[in-house]
Amino acid sequence: MTDSDYLDSSSLCSPKQILNAVLQLRRDIASEADAMFADWRKRITRADFECSAKNFACYLALRRRDLRDLQSALLPLGLSSLGRSEARVLANLDAVIASLQAICNVKKRQPHPTSEAFFKGENLLKQNADLVLGKAPDRRSVRMMITLPPRAIDDYAFVSTLLERGMNCARINCAHESPDEWEKMIHHIRRAEKSTGLSCKIFMDLAGPKVRTSTVQKPRLKSKKGDLIFLYAHRPSNKFKRFQQVKCALPDILPQVSQGDEVWIDDGHIGTVVEQRTSSGALLRVTTVEDKGKIIKPDKGLNFPTTSLVINPLTEKDLRDLDFICEYADGVNYSFVQDGSDVKRLQSELAKRTTRRKAAMALIAKIETRRAVEHFPEIVIQGAGKNPLGVMIARGDLAVEIGYQRIAEIQEELLWLSEAAHVPVIWATQVLESLVKKGIPSRAEITDAAMAERAECVMLNKGEFILSAMEILDNVLMRMEQHQRKKTPQLRALYSWQSI
């Protein structure tokens, strides 16, 4: 019998067999989790995170197993299917065991967990969300993060209105504007806080090593399926002068690319594959693009989803910007973080700059690459082990990196894993995008915004109709909170059909 045979349907025919299977499952998970936590222990200096790290280890151990047969066996007994155990793995198993022992008339049975013990994980998640993102408003538990537009530099009334409309967190992207302009934005926020009595956390994005196009030869040429493009490091090639040639803004990337690797241009609008590598660049063949073709422009994103790129996540600009961030902001959004070593590098830089701060700076890990997904547990342990941590699911680059067909699946997994570690999540990228930019939302966008209620914070990008988008998002979040919290339905009385 293998380690998981006791979870097969053939071994789950009676309450006694189910009880034995759950008891064995709990023993195995506790043992594996203890080993994981022992390995993590030296990276955890925040005592407040120890309990969460242990639950995270339990959840990782739990989800290594296929539990579907066990779930089906538990349901007819009126017991938990284990499908909502993210924040409380062992407490959930203990509650199931206590109920099964009662059903089986076990004489010496363990008591059910107390309500306080059972919901400890949920309470830790709430505390961490308050610590990282600030307290949620009374009318909803999900916060709103707003990306500040250039208008916020000189228009105090606009910034004050953002707070009044429900902005709980402000985001400033260090890829745009200047330190003098950032300081003006922050001054407006702090002034508005005093005037309105409302609070707002300030987060600043490190620009990071975003790989982009630079100079484009034949700039008005539309790339179509089957066309060849030469992506070069430093200068165009005479050998490929008959093709369109595009300069890569980070030339050190190109030697890491191999024949057959995928390269996506302009945030996934143009898909290519490497046909040939040369000493000066890579010849790409277009495999995916709209029928009419698309023009490649400078300063458009490049993604290499099938290449394991080695990139320093902190540029010289990032290090300069950190000086400002540590003085003025409440938290730093870490772009293109790849693994635990990247987090450790940022923490080292923060430690040099935050000796005068009373508390450790909040760190938001932006998950936007395939490698970050693969190394997510170590990012969480390294990050939360030393700093208050949040996770941003940055769905733009992430969708290009992992494939659009997997983005819904992966964002679900990131939500579950973050809840297991009691780490708050920011749901980001293109939330109500049409509404923000054009003033009219799509039906799909409203559904997406409603699903975002399962995160602790939702981010809106800048746009002309941002105030209208905030009003609608606030309404959607308040309504959905009455029906759903994380994966758990809230069964309030329903009256909708009576008024249709």
What's a concise summary of this model?
The protein is built from 17 helices and 19 strands. The protein has 500 residues and is an alpha/beta fold.
How would you describe this structure to a colleague?
With 500 residues, this protein is of the alpha/beta class. It folds into three domains: 5-118, no CATH class; 130-209 and 311-489, Phosphoenolpyruvate-binding domains (TIM Barrel, Alpha-Beta Barrel), CATH 3.20.20; 213-303, Beta Barrel (M1 Pyruvate Kinase, Domain 3), CATH 2.40.33. Helix content is 40%, strand content 17%. The strands form four sheets. An eight-stranded parallel barrel has the order 1-2-3-13-14-15-16-17, surrounded by seven helices. Strands 4-7-6-10-9-8-12 form a seven-stranded mixed sheet, covered by helices on one side. A two-stranded antiparallel ribbon has the order 5-11.
CATH C-level class of the largest domain: Alpha Beta
- The number of helical segments is 17
Low-confidence segments, ≥5 residues, pLDDT <50?
Answer: none
Helical residue percent? 40-55%
What integer value in Å does the Rg equal?
A: 25 Å
Question: What is the CATH fold-level name of the largest domain?
Answer: TIM Barrel
Attribute tags:
globular, 3 domains, alpha/beta, TIM Barrel, 40% helix, 19 strands, M1 Pyruvate Kinase, Domain 3, single chain, 500 residues
Topology:
Blueprint (H helix, E strand, L loop, with lengths): L14 H26 L9 H13 L5 H7 L14 H15 L11 H4 L1 H14 L9 E5 L8 H9 L4 E5 L5 H18 L4 E5 L7 E4 L5 E2 L4 E5 L11 E5 L13 E4 L4 E9 L2 E8 L5 E2 L6 E2 L12 H13 L2 E4 L5 H14 L8 E6 L2 H5 L1 H9 L4 E6 H8 L4 H14 L4 E4 L4 H6 L4 H9 L5 E4 L5 H16 L2 E2 L2 E2 L11
Parallel strand pairs: 1-2, 1-17, 2-3, 3-13, 6-7, 13-14, 14-15, 15-16, 16-17
Antiparallel strand pairs: 4-7, 5-11, 6-10, 8-9, 8-12, 9-10, 18-19
Helix pairs in contact: 1-2, 1-4, 7-8, 10-12, 16-17
